[in-house]
Design brief:
The complex is a heterotrimer of chains A (278), B (329) and C (324). Chain A is mainly α. Chain A is built from 12 helices and no strands.
Chain lengths: 278, 329, 324
């Protein structure tokens, strides 16, 4: 793993991605210690200020320090992204491999499940769920998990189908290997590569979805800071000050770039065949 | 008439490098090769001998990291290496064409055979029905029964042997001066292989084109070709008329190769001949002869000195060349 | 020598359309026979070679023998037990005693698994944890003439010949009684071909393993095989001792195959018998003798009446009305 990271950081875009991701993760994890202010502490006197040494990104309409809010908002964003994508990955990989490798009726059943989920528009599905069970971090995670499973599941299924008829799988069968072993030892390592890049490129999408829901007031409950709610505040204040909008969108931009570059670079490094051709 | 125009293709001193992470890989080195008009020239060699690089150089469709470091490739009197891309394009498919090992790689799976065969005649100013007729005639020539109606079928509706016949028909439709055949029979069964060889022979004599026939199957080369070129690790080690080279091979590699061919071993044996060792690393070439490490007849000078090309038959009309120290003595 | 494998009247079918479609079209069967009524025996320590062109069903037969494909009827007896009737547990025991060498040497190795792990994979599958895998990997590599440093190579870092050797090493891991080798020389250079065949011959002499070789390359057959069968459209048309078949083939198809062999020297070359056309489709098997559509010697009888096998003695038989 260390070697892969070394190789990733050897190319400029990989390094940029790695630096951005590490920066985002570190700032989110360490938000409690590095944030100069309490992200929810009101300070009406200093409201709607521009950037200064006192407030690096300015303050919002309630005088809360935007830099601190962005840091804590990153915590929420990354928590939602990592938890929901990890769960979706595990379930998606399992279902996808079973669908691709198993008997045809099981494949049809799982595909029917995937298609049913995908036939809901994601945002509508999210809004309906929130309306039903109320807004919370857990609801956002659950919505993202359910809507992402088919994406990963389908990729894994296709990969499994194409691997299934390879001679090395038949060789395992003739040697007497159980289906579970074949899936775990021989199929999984070969489908996980493309999936990792897909997942790392999905992180910004999920973060944007969380931000979007929070923007609509359907995600994280105020006063907990979220990039989406920062953006929402900025949107209503756009005629007074641009800074909340800037503060809310910069991290979104950086996260998207960071994970995309890192994902592409990882893909090149994780495939032993690609690795040698470069 | 000058000497150059007797040859459809004339390669002189051609060297090609590939840029790789380990440094430059010298895939072809100082290759001299002539293809006389109306002759079938066979190229024999094992994997890594530079056959594919040679082909890509003749059709001038080279990999991005390939670099021609020296030499000329004259085709019908003009140097392909200095030719404009437009001119090259007008040659490919018209004056020279190519048949590959896998016919499905040249046939478009979503178009009918007829459409594809008519499409490649786009330079002609004939009517569509005339072009179709010509395609049907060509299919008949390669032995496809009921060609007119089979023009409406898709590639997957034909068997492997039939597909290869069709790709040969497409390649020869424009009556090219040179047909490059890259292992066209390797993927076929023996009974089909001999059918295709007989057909190629017939077509060659009726069209009068030259053929560069690449194969690792010595028997096929012996049966089909007039001339044979033996390549090893990017160099031509021996070349000459098939009858001479296969009857009295001069280069130790050619000798070994002929010995290894299981078809030539009539007596049953549990211990087949092999060539020990592996092809040398082309990024780090030995100082002397390229075959030294695997040669059973090597001497001290083989390790130090590169051998030169020698004519085996002095004064004969059909030259037999070998690149080996043993022959210079 | 005692009998190791005995296949009786084996039939393997593939479904070509759904039952519904075939019922609607009123055609008799939604199946085609890829292998039809095949019987043969392989003795211990013997090499049995199956020769046929593409589409003859030879790989299907091999896959059925190793238990990868279900059989429609007939039996596969291995050391007296019928493989087609075995419960799963017994099948595991069968799979320890047979192994397979695959047509595509690199493709049959798991691409992300190092050679050392790949060749000791059988121990893991059969829970033989008492063996020292490092030691075993070295022993197996040594057996096939590769140095121990190949242990940590990946399949794509191997040449065709090396990958082939690794395949042999894996096949030998559990000391099998029978190795099924599908096109053992496919994709190999002539100079390497010999190495692999010599290796197989040597291993057979040393370990006494039986070989079931499937190939379309007749040139290698006579050097490795004791008995040979020629397959056409899923049936054996000729079967007998290899030496006899090469010297005096009885079936016209065998004759044609043997003669369709471009050789460098004309010494001992047979007069070429050109076959007409191509192998017919299994969906529309010809009437009578299934070879009559391409046979240069076909008579009227051949088109209507199917020939029965003629026994020439010494376990030699051919299925032809007018054997040569």
């Amino acid at each position: 793993m260390l070697q892969v990271l070394k190789k990733v950081s050897a190319e400029p875009l990989g390094l940029l991605g790695l630096v951005l991701v590490v920066l985002m993760v570190a700032s989110a994890v360490l938000a409690y210690w590095i944030a100069p202010y309490d992200p929810i502490a009101l300070n009406i006197i200093d409201r709607l200020q521009g950037p200064s040494f006192k407030h690096l990104l300015g303050t919002d309409q309630l005088g809360r320090d935007l830099f601190s809010r962005v840091l804590f908002g990153g915590q929420v964003a990354l928590k939602v992204a990592f938890i929901s994508i990890s769960i979706a990955l595990v379930i998606g990989v399992l279902l996808g491999m079973v669908a691709g490798f198993g008997p045809k009726w099981l494949d049809s059943l799982i595909m029917l499940f995937f298609d049913t989920i995908r036939s809901f528009p994601t945002v509508m599905f999210a809004l309906a769920t929130v309306a039903l069970v109320g807004p919370s971090l857990m609801t956002v995670v659950a919505v993202i998990v359910v809507t992402s499973i088919p994406t990963y599941g389908r990729v894994v299924r296709t990969q499994t189908l194409s691997i299934k008829n390879n001679e090395f799988i038949k060789a395992e069968q003739v040697m007497g290997a159980s289906t579970a072993r074949i899936l775990r030892v021989h199929v999984l390592p070969n489908v996980v590569g493309p999936l990792l890049i897909l997942a790392s490129m999905d992180i910004p999408t999920v973060i944007a979805l969380e931000a979007g829901l929070s923007f609509l007031g359907m995600g994280v409950k105020p006063p907990t800071p979220s990039w989406g709610s920062i953006l929402n505040d900025g949107y209503t204040l756009i005629r007074n000050t641009p800074w909340p909008i800037v503060a809310g969108s910069i991290p979104l931009l950086l996260v998207t770039l960071g994970f995309t570059f890192l994902g592409e670079s990882l893909r090149d490094q994780l495939d032993p065949k690609l690795r040698n051709n470069r | 008439m000058s000497k150059a125009t007797d040859n459809v293709l004339s390669i002189r001193n051609l060297s090609i490098d590939y840029a790789t992470q380990e440094g430059s890989l010298k895939a072809l080195r100082n290759v001299d090769l002539d293809i006389p008009k109306g002759q079938i020239v066979g190229v024999v060699g094992e994997s890594g001998c530079g056959k594919s690089t040679l082909i890509s150089s003749i059709i001038q469709l080279m990999a991005n990291n390939a670099k021609t470091t020296s030499g000329t490739v004259f085709f019908e009197g003009e140097d392909l290496l200095t030719m404009s891309p437009t001119k090259l394009k007008s040659l490919r498919g018209q004056r020279m064409s190519i048949v590959f090992q896998d016919p499905m790689s040249t046939l478009n799976p979503v178009l009918t055979i007829g459409k594809q065969m008519v499409d490649i005649q786009y330079r002609d100013k004939r009517s569509k029905s005339q072009k179709r007729q010509r395609s049907a005639d060509m299919l008949a020539q390669v032995g496809i029964p009921d060609p007119a109606s089979r023009l409406n079928q898709y590639p997957h509706e034909f068997s492997g042997g039939m597909q290869q016949r069709i790709s040969i028909a497409m390649a020869l439709q424009a009556q090219p001066a040179l047909l490059i055949a890259d292992e066209p029979t390797t993927a076929l069964d023996a009974t089909l292989e001999v059918q295709i060889i007989d057909m190629l022979k017939e077509l060659q004599s009726s069209i009068g084109c030259s053929i560069l026939f690449i194969s690792h199957h010595l028997g096929v080369i012996a049966e089909l070709c007039n001339q044979v070129v033996v390549m090893y690790a990017g160099e031509i080690v021996e070349q000459g008329p098939v009858s001479r080279v296969f009857k009295s091979p001069k280069h130790p590699y050619t000798q070994k190769l002929l010995e290894c061919d299981p078809a030539s071993i009539a007596k049953k044996t549990r211990n087949l001949p092999t060539i020990e060792g592996e092809i040398p690393n082309l990024s780090d070439l030995p100082a002397g002869c390229i075959f030294t490490s695997r040669c059973h007849k090597k001497t001290a000078q083989c390790e130090e000195l590169k051998p030169k090309r020698h004519a085996v038959t002095q004064g004969a009309t059909e030259k037999h060349f070998v690149t080996c120290h043993l022959e210079s003595l | 020598m005692s009998q190791l494998l005995e296949v009786n009247n084996l039939r393997v079918q593939f479904r070509v359309k759904s039952s519904m479609a075939s019922w609607l079209q009123k055609s008799e069967s939604p199946f085609i026979d890829a292998v039809r009524d095949v019987s043969f025996k392989i003795k211990e320590g013997e090499t049995f070679t199956l020769v046929g062109e593409s589409g003859s069903g030879k790989s299907t037969l091999a896959n059925a023998v190793v238990g990868l494909l279900p059989t429609a009827s007939g039996s596969i007896n291995f050391m007296g037990d019928d493989v087609t009737q075995m419960p799963d547990k017994q099948l595991m025991a069968y799979r320890k005693q047979i192994s397979m060498m695959w047509q595509n040497p690199t493709g049959s190795l798991s691409p992300r698994m190092q050679v050392g792990d790949a060749i000791t994979e059988p121990y893991k599958i059969h829970n033989l944890s008492d063996r020292d895998k490092q030691q075993e990997a070295k022993r197996l590599l040594n057996l096939v003439g590769l140095s121990a440093r190949f242990q940590d190579r990946y399949p794509h870092q191997l040449s065709g010949g090396q990958a082939r050797r690794v395949g042999v090493a894996r096949a030998l891991a559990l000391n099998p009684k029978l190795i099924v080798a599908d096109e053992p020389t496919a994709g190999l250079d002539v100079s390497v071909q010999g190495e692999i065949l010599n290796l197989l011959n040597r291993l057979q002499d040393d370990l006494g393993v039986s070989l079931f070789v499937i190939t379309h390359n007749l040139n290698i057959v006579r050097h490795i095989s004791d008995r040979t069968a020629i397959m056409y459209l899923g049936r054996f048309v000729e079967e007998g001792p290899t030496d006899d078949i090469f010297v005096n083939p009885h079936h016209p198809y065998t004759l044609a195959l043997l003669s369709a062999n471009p050789e460098v020297t004309n010494v001992g070359a047979l007069e070429r018998i050109a076959l007409k056309g191509e192998v017919p489709s299994l969906m529309h098997r010809p009437s009578g003798c299934e070879f009559h559509t391409r046979c240069p010697f076909a008579q009227e009888l051949c088109a209507t009446v199917a020939p029965v096998g003629i026994d020439f003695g010494f376990e030699y038989s051919a299925t032809c009305h007018y054997p040569r």
